[in-house]
Amino acid sequence: MNNCIFCKIVNHEIPATVVYEDEDVLVFMDIGPIIKGHALVVPKDHFDSVLETPENVLAKLHRAAKRIAVAQMNGLGADGVNIVQNNGKAAGQEVPHMHVHVIPRFEGDGHHWNWNAKKYVDSNEMIGLAEKMRNNL
Ligand code: AMP
Ligand code: ZN
């Protein structure tokens, strides 16, 4: 894809600090880490988001993400790992080339997700939304 920053990294047109590479997947350090050690797992082929990414590619990305998570635990001494993936502007996706964030977490690292649990008006509201999703699987 023209002008895609992650395609440029894959094609060595702009630099990145690579952690892992194989035929289909590249893993490099995020330049704006949520926590130091934050890495990005990307497919070498361009797909905008998870919605366009074939299932076999998703499997390869998540296999690599797990290996990176293990490496953060064993190599960086992380106490936990967040695996996060944003799709679409509304979901906070800034770079429209599919990527999986792998973020090492340390006890007392001070990071807090803004995880504000809401309530449904009643159980019918929740059941109705589940039905709409079920009808579109
Ligand atoms: P998202 O908001 O899910 O699209 O995440 C995009 C991520 O890409 C952010 O965490 C950025 O810090 C990261 N990023 C943007 N440009 C670069 C780059 N040139 N090298 C490494 N990471 C980058
Ligand atoms: Zn791209």
Short structural summary:
With 137 residues, the protein is of the alpha+beta class.
- The CATH topology: HIT family, subunit A
As a percent range, the share of helical residues equals: 25-40%
| Shape type | globular
| DSSP strand count | 5
N→C terminal distance: 29 Å
| Uncertain stretches | none
Strand order of the largest sheet: 1-2-3-5-4
Secondary structural class: alpha+beta
Count of helix runs: 3
- As for the number of domains, it is 1
- Strand and helix order: HEEEHEEH
Q: What fraction of the residues are assigned to beta strands by DSSP?
A: 15-25%
Question: Which class in CATH terms?
Answer: Alpha Beta
Structural overview:
With 137 residues, the protein is α+β, with helices and mostly antiparallel strands. The chain has a single domain, classed as 2-Layer Sandwich (HIT family, subunit A), CATH 3.30.428. Helices cover 29% and strands 18% of the residues. The chain contains three helices and five strands, in the order αβββαββα. It has helices at residues 5-10, 55-76, 123-134; strands at 18-21, 25-29, 39-43, 80-84, 100-105. A five-stranded antiparallel β-sheet has the order 1-2-3-5-4, covered by helices on one side. The chain is globular, with a radius of gyration of 17 Å. The mean pLDDT is 97. Bound molecules: adenosine monophosphate and zinc ion. Zinc ion binds next to helix 1. Adenosine monophosphate (AMP) is lined by residues 5, 16, 30-32, 40, 86, 92-95.
